[in-house]
Amino acid sequence: MIILYGSPLSGNTHKVRMALAFLGLPRDERLTDAAARQSGAFAALTPMRQIPLFVDDGFALRDSQAILALLAARHRPGEWDGHTPEERGAIMLWLSHAANEIANGPATLRLARKFGLAIPEDHAAAVTARILPVVEAHLERRDWLAGDRLTIADLAASPYLALIGDAGIDLAGWPAIHAWTRRIAALPAFPEMPGWPAEGVI
Amino acid sequence: MIILYGSPLSGNTHKVRMALAFLGLPRDERLTDAAARQSGAFAALTPMRQIPLFVDDGFALRDSQAILALLAARHRPGEWDGHTPEERGAIMLWLSHAANEIANGPATLRLARKFGLAIPEDHAAAVTARILPVVEAHLERRDWLAGDRLTIADLAASPYLALIGDAGIDLAGWPAIHAWTRRIAALPAFPEMPGWPAEGVI
């Protein structure tokens, strides 16, 4: 059984939760709050003490993008991680944006504005302002970030964009991003999270 | 012919330069300085106006990690990007660290301290202090970041760690990282860059 250390409100956890739900894989999800992350037992599993952490039969892997890459290669090779080198590169681009601009922009702004963490907002707001128009323009011309179907690019990039309301930004102001997050939320087996409800067929 | 828009002092450009050199692929490297990046012609190629930018027969791809993923899938599938799902995940972990912690830590600190960009140093210093011990501990037990050979994990993560002297940090204080950057610099066809010289056989 796959063990997923995470939190219901964590967008990074949700990336993996979506992948496991779409794959139909059972998971033992273990709530790992701030206190649990500071424990020595958790640090022994993952040196940066971050969630999500994926453990499967003794193999542990941190970083949401890395876990998505593992699951894609195991269960949806090609379909989820690229049939061609060009697709592989296009998907990796969005994994980079998820790891950098989306994490340090919208996700960080959400931590400050929704959860009240003492984080300077200026940098996060500037990164958010830089990445949103790039994603919006990209999605104006297509349904999915890379290729013609859902890939791990969409799984990695979508949660913190779906949740930008938590960061004080109206998702309705970004219609192509909004439509794409609803498209994902309409997929069979989509797992809801607070702030990102499932959709009927759209 | 592959066109690589970049700069001799850019560690991100160097990731791709190393890959092309190790693959023995000719490149038309076009110096793209700050002024060139602001041109409309460059913006038409890449919306974030960042280097490196890879163009091959009309196919353009930004983001150094994405370009490495493309080149690995094309020319060294398995060897450079993972033979197994577990290796694929382990490599992706370091691509995430390269895109996030290494970019926002040592690379940003270098921009501030070597090139005098007006960037607040506190956040970059904190990220650097967090990631360096993780990399050092990982490399104390192994020669390469993932698997038993050079992969795109090493290409993505190494330049800004090899160049931490430019960020005001003594690489000699991190002996496992230092040995690893010298191991890469001793590979046949390693392209030198200012601050990271080639090594004889070590």
Give a concise summary.
Two copies of one chain form a homodimer. By secondary structure, chain A is α+β, with helices and mostly antiparallel strands. Chain A contains eight helices and four strands; from the N terminus they run βαβααββααααα.
CATH class of the largest domain in chain A: Mainly Alpha
Low-confidence stretches of chain A: none
Strand order of the largest sheet of chain A: 2-1-3-4
Largest interface, Cβ cutoff 8 Å:
A-B, 40 and 40 residues
Secondary-structure element order of chain A, as H and E? EHEHHEEHHHHH
CATH fold annotation of the largest domain in chain A: Glutathione S-transferase Yfyf (Class Pi), Chain A, domain 2
* Oligomeric description of these chains: homodimer
Rg of chain A, nearest Å: 16 Å
Q: How many beta-strand runs of chain A?
A: 4
Largest sheet of chain A: 4 strands, mixed
Structural class of chain A: alpha+beta
Shape of chain A from CA axes? globular
Helix content bin of chain A = 40-55%
Structural domain tally of chain A: 2
Strand content of chain A: 5-15%
CA(first)-CA(last) distance of chain A: 33 Å
